[in-house]
Amino acid sequence: MYFRDEYSKRGFFYNAHPAVVALAAGIFACLLTFLASYLMVADLRRQLAEDMLDFSLVLAGDIQAADRLERGDMRGRPLLDFDRRILHWPDGGIEACLEGIAAWQTAARPDLTRPEAEVLARPICGGDRMSTLRGDLLETTDILIAGTGADGARQVTSLRIMRGELVPWTVLVTRPGQLAIAVWVSLTAGAFGYVVRRRQYRAYMTAREKASMDALSGVLRREEFEEKLEAAVAKIKAAGGAACLLAIDLDHFKSVNDRFGHAAGDEVIRRCGQLIGGALRAGDIIGRVGGEEFMVLLPNLPKYVAAEVADRLRKRMVSQAFTFGSETVFVSTSIGVASLMAEDTVTGLSQRADRRLYMAKRRGRNCVVWEDEGDADY
User: Fold this and answer.
1) Cα separation of 341 and 293, whole Å?
2) Judgement on whether residues 170 and 127 belong to the same structural domain of the protein
């Protein structure tokens, strides 16, 4: 029961085998591709229907459709393109008609040969209303239509249907339907990827954070603190900035363990970690470097200001009451402060802070030492 509850709470993909996730992603991609293809084909069929309607209107003699075609309003379609030309009926018999139309066609359509033009013109000159000729690979279709103009004079209309220039990028950005499909596919695929990965990513980030943090005090583990300290000091020195390092140790901590047990000592460590973290800035780096010892890097602070911060922290710590059974205990701290010098290494900075911490211990504890004779850094 617990497994099912936990599984349903975290979601299907959280504990799924990679093969299952891959199969689900493949099925989703297949469905998405099918739907996108269906919508694109439907949009292109609609465009083809509009083009064919315009074409049929021209063939039926629709003057307005013919005028739109003449002005070029129907050109540039992604599927079909049209070109119309009009010739007054050649005077004379069939041979004169054939000669006039064929000569006109070859001049207007340079890709038509004279025999092809004659084949296209012969049915019209013989009395048919319409004649057609398909080009190679169905790239073009030429149509001749016999009719009369607005003035009642006989005329021949040459209509060429051509395959439109399908430039994918142009079709995408100029046709709202195709653009909407592309945006929909991108957003849907992104949403699916987000759903699949978000819980694993959160779990990874949580695990990484836990790995870098001391479970008891809630501040950085020693290894993580030293790594971040090294990087921060290098960055501060490169920028010519100031920084101070505090070495903090709980006074008489062993007596808390001896009198009240290790659970009480753990509670003191936990609460002190919270107090230190809550009293400092977001950019300060805090780590637990020993059993009851902490270190804090204070970037962009001179030593006299860091000493004031350390003293406020000391007062805050010593005012915190711990109750174990019927007894109330106050735990004080000793703090050493060292400021970063231009020639400093991380090791030298840490050693100087530790030395001043031990000086605070020798001076009776519950105090802050921020310089000593012969090494008064600023």
Assistant:
1) 23
2) no
Helices 18-59 and 176-212, packing angle to 10 deg: 170
Asked if residues 369 and 307 have their Cβ atoms less than 8 Å apart, the reply is no
What are the tens digits of pLDDT across the range 41-57? 777 777 777 767 766 66
Please state the separation of Cα 151 from the chain's center in Å. 65
- Claim to verify: residue 224 and residue 332 sit in the same structural domain: yes
Q: Which residues span the domain enclosing 347?
A: 213-369
Residues 191 and 138 in one domain: no
Residue type, 270: R
Between CA 243 and CA 248, with CA 247 as vertex, the angle to 5 degrees is: 130
Reported as a single tens digit per residue, the pLDDT across 266-318 is 999 999 999 998 888 888 999 999 889 999 999 999 988 999 999 999 999 99
Long-range contacts of 10-14 (CB under 8 A, 24+ apart): 10/199, 11/199, 13/195, 13/196, 13/199, 13/200, 14/199, 14/200, 14/203
Are 33 and 87 within one domain? no
Task: Quote the crossing angle between the two packed helices 222-239 and 346-362, to the nearest 10°.
Answer: 110
**Domain end call among 175, 191, 206:** 206
User: 321-324 and 333-339: which strand pairing?
Assistant: unpaired
Count of the separate structural domains present in the chain: 3
